[in-house]
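Weekly structure sync, notes
Attendees: PL (lead), two postdocs, one rotation student
Agenda item 3: pending single-chain targets
PL asked that the sequence for the first pending target be pasted directly into the notes so everyone works from the same version. It is reproduced below exactly as submitted, 592 residues in total.
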Amino acid sequence: TVGPSGDVTSGHDPWCARLGVLPGTETTDHTCAKGGWMADGGCSADDYVEVDLGATHTVYAVRTAGVQAKANSDYLNEFLLKYSSDGHNFYDANEAPDCTVCEAGRFGMNCATLQEVCDLDRCGLNGHCTGKTEGCHCKAGYSGDDCSTCDVYGTENKRCAICFDDLLGPSCDMNQTECDETVCGNRGACNVYGECDCTGDYIEHTTLNSDDIHITQVFFQTCFKKAKYIRITPQTFDTRQAGMFEFYTCAENDKQCATPIALGMQDLSIPNAHISAAASSGANHPWCGRLGHTNAVHLPGCTAVGWLAPDGGTGQKYYFQTEFTEAARLCGLGAEGIEGTGHIKTALIQWSEDGMVWQSIHNQTACDYCAPGTYGPYDPTSGIDRLDDCQYNSARECGNKHCNGNGVCNHLRVPLLAQDVGDGLSVCICDADKDAAGSTCGVTKAVCRAQRCGDMGECQDPEGTCLCDKPGFTTESACSKAGENCNDADCKSCKHGWFGRECDETAAECRADRCNGAGACTGRYDGCSCDTDCYTSASGCTELETPCVRYKHKTLLIVLLSIGTAIGGAFGLYESMKYYKRKKAGMSYDTV
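Predicted structure, written out during the meeting:
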């Protein structure tokens, strides 16, 4: 653009002020007839040409050339050069700056750069600008002139902070008091790493699987560069402590871990000898707990899939441990349960450089669990959050107080009332003759079985789940509906015409859902027999892209064969009748 008058010599418009562009050259949206910009009427101090660079750039130099018009050459003897970051406030680039010290929140040679812009450009948002033209004050864990170096070893003084300026919380928008209350529940203090430093009786756990069949991936808030060992200790689980695992690293520049890199469980590069556990059950050895393997035939040394701890109830916790072949940059893990057997709900995740000194991976922004050796829930009706928090030294002492003397407390710091427990977690582990999942162990197992599970299963948690006696039965309706179409008590196969995991899909329903209405289901869980060869069963009877013209010839052949068979049959019948009549007339067999 030009200004303020906007007058230019004909053919020398401002968009023609491009070095090296010859007359007649078309630009992106204009044609320059003569080339070069020229103000109309000679030189005036008010004339200028202004260029919007489209983005912020560092400009080191300006190169100019004159304009040859007819027989004369016009050019600038000298000029003023000014720059701006907003198009409104311009600063002289040719003169020494007037200021030697910028006012608060301003930086740059002419003190024109705002704090947030300088922090981004100079310090990568990992620190604050401190000087007029150089210098950064880096966040905790970052170093270097531009705060770009992050050394992460898991120790508090070498992790990289996510918050700055005394602001805390997941979005760095809370003060200390607000974060401690809303994020850590006043059971710990928020730190600059986006975590809670839990106080006294609390310890952080990580949430893993919600069922037996789906894989959960958990990525830590910070990676740990020198991890040689990782240990998973289940804290809560469904039915059994069981699982399959993979561990991940990420590239240094993949800050969000968008492309996780497996560390060797699934591809077997971590040898069996490097995988161990506190204990295991039967053929479910710890080295069988490799994520991604559903068939034991592919697992050397295994006849079963997944690691399974002994069935010791909820009191004993058995850890699963892996040693990497070399120190790794540990960034996350994947976990899956064993279908029909159990899965880990929450676990304590730890890592170590030497297998002796272990450090917890703080991955939760909460402090909802009592530390080992302490027990005690809080009472949501008391109005005082920490009334009985983790104050008992034994599980039985806590159970006498909160479980009607019919059980013991677990380590979970959860409400006493069943309707407030949530996620199937219970304060109490009830004695053998009591409801195994009652929030206060006030109902016998027999009564709970009859009332909640229709005498066809055992109570599992205060939210209504039953462990049904027969595997084919569902827990959704107290073990009473599904399974009626099973061939046997264990529901290993379906009756004729029934399909699905619980044998509850008719042939017509399965045809529509699984085979796209173009074939018949052949297996309980998968498999289709398509109506014609024009469909592929690989993806549920989808039509092939190539037209099936060749099958018209098959149809014609079948018709011809049918007509031939009919004629042959008629001729044979005619000859048989002739034979019968002649024999009846008294002709000998030889004559006939």
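Discussion points:
- Residues 136 and 145 are 7 Å apart (CA to CA).
- Residues 153-158, 379-387, 414-425 have pLDDT under 50 and may be disordered.
Action: rotation student to compare against the earlier draft before next sync.
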